[in-house]
């Protein structure tokens, strides 16, 4: 086997959690080239993977919103790039129309996707010449590893390996002192996934008493207002400037602890091997949670709002791991 294309188009957290598929394939087939097709909006973190040989991207999401001629030309150019090589296998671990179209356009006679009942959009089935087995009884992240292994004929071994290498920071839009820093990812894409501001404040007050400095990232004006509400009640809490995706990743890597709701950046923190607590309010962690002994944990059952005490217990758990108190800056992601 010489070259494989992985298709996982969106979104940030899903792409990050799919990256261990690359390490699995390269372990099973030393020397194989692994390319990855993603939406331009999320291709940045695929470039951080040391195992991906070629990143293919197009502004699919932006074109859907704006219908710009320049974006259409960029999509056409990306199709030409997609077809520059013939693939032994195309593995679509997304399972919707746009991923299926990418798989269909790629030059390969073996295009593998989900069974119809497991597809996000059933019409995507037109693109595939073969199917994964039935969806395994496990979380979504391990399920993607299993599906890829079924497509390519190997066994999944060991914990997920992300192999992320962040770009060096040329400028620092934030500066941390010697004290341990915790980032609160309080913002969510849906209101029903939010943890109450009062809970963030109470947690921030307790962590501040423990000697942590709290920093609050944000991405929209509404999220900044929420950050201001928390910072106003937590002594020493800092509202960060608006950061790019790369800058947020670098900020995460400089922190001692990440606490946040079920969002892509909290999944990224887990992949970067940071001590991470993920809070589930309206959904359950069974399908999309994170878990690594003494390092990452998910709390919440999707039926009730996790308490502050539950969050603090989770923080104590991830901070009780080996050398936890000594870790404060710059982890390397394996």
TrEMBL record:
CDD domains: GT9_LPS_heptosyltransferase
Protein topology in the membrane: Peripheral membrane protein
Entry annotated with the keyword Electron transport: no
Family: Belongs to the glycosyltransferase 9 family.
Pathway membership, UniProt: Bacterial outer membrane biogenesis; LPS core biosynthesis
Enzyme class, spelled out: transferase
Gene Ontology molecular function, alphabetical: transferase activity
Record EC number: 2.4.99.23
Protein name (database record): Lipopolysaccharide heptosyltransferase 1
Organism of provenance: Paraburkholderia metrosideri
Pfam short name (any one): Glyco_transf_9
Reactions it catalyzes: an alpha-Kdo-(2->4)-alpha-Kdo-(2->6)-lipid A + ADP-L-glycero-beta-D-manno-heptose = an L-alpha-D-Hep-(1->5)-[alpha-Kdo-(2->4)]-alpha-Kdo-(2->6)-lipid A + ADP + H(+)
Name of the gene: rfaC_1
Keywords associated with the record: Cell inner membrane, Cell membrane, Glycosyltransferase, Lipopolysaccharide biosynthesis, Membrane, Transferase
Location in or out of the cell: Cell inner membrane
């Amino acid at each position: 086997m010489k070259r494989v294309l992985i298709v996982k188009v969106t979104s940030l957290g899903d792409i990050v959690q799919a990256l261990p598929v690359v390490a699995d394939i390269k372990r099973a087939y030393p020397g194989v080239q692994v390319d990855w097709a993603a939406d331009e909006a999320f291709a940045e973190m695929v470039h951080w993977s040391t195992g991906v040989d070629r990143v293919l991207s197009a502004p699919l999401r932006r074109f859907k919103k704006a219908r710009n001629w320049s974006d259409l030309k960029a999509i056409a150019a990306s199709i030409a790039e997609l077809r520059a090589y013939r693939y032994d296998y195309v593995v679509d671990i997304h399972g919707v129309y746009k991923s299926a179209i990418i798989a269909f356009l790629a030059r390969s006679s073996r295009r593998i996707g989900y069974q119809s009942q497991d597809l996000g959009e059933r019409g995507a089935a037109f693109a595939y010449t073969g199917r994964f087995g039935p969806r395994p009884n496990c979380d979504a992240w391990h399920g993607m590893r299993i599906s890829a292994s079924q497509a390519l004929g190997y066994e999944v071994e060991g914990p997920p390996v992300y192999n992320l290498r962040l770009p060096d920071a040329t400028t620092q839009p934030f500066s941390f002192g010697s004290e341990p820093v915790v980032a609160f990812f309080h913002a969510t894409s849906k209101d029903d996934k939010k943890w109450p501001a009062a809970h963030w404040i109470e947690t921030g007050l307790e962590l501040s008493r423990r000697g942590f400095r709290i920093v609050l990232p944000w991405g929209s004006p509404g999220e900044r207002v929420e950050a201001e509400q928390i910072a106003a009640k937590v002594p020493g809490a800092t509202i960060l400037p608006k950061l790019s995706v790369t800058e947020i990743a670098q900020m995460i890597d400089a922190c001692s602890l990440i606490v946040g709701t079920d969002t892509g950046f909290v999944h990224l923190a887990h992949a970067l091997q940071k001590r991470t607590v993920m809070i589930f309010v309206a959904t359950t962690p069974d399908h999309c949670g994170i878990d690594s002994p003494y390092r990452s944990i998910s709390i919440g059952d999707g039926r009730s709002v996790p308490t502050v005490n539950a969050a603090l217990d989770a923080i104590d758990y991830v901070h009780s791991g080996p050398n936890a108190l000594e870790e404060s800056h710059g982890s390397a992601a394996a």
